[in-house]
Amino acid sequence: MADITDIKTILYTEKSLELKESGVLVVQTSTRMTKNKLKEIFKSYFGFTPIRVNSLRQDGKTKRFKGRLGQRSDFKKFYVKIPEGADINSLSV
Length: 93
What we know:
Elements: E1 7-10, H1 14-21, E2 24-29, H2 35-46, E3 52-58, E4 62-65, E5 68-71, E6 75-81
Antiparallel strand pairs: 1-2, 2-6, 3-6, 4-5
GO biological process, one term: translation
GO molecular function: rRNA binding; structural constituent of ribosome
Protein name: Large ribosomal subunit protein uL23
């Protein structure tokens, strides 16, 4: 069973704020999350089923941390189309 703690954050970038105006929410999750699990979370915790869910898997960047090579964590990004009657402002994770 999927849990609300699998959602890491709701992204607030310039692109995601433009998408939010058209009813699309951008959610960052762990790499093990699937579309069906995410729909289940939205239905059980927020009380509505998303119209559409698109996913994107992003590999972590290789960066230098204090002179040593390091790797940022991999994550998945989901673009969730919210129904018109749903209240997006109350979604805080």
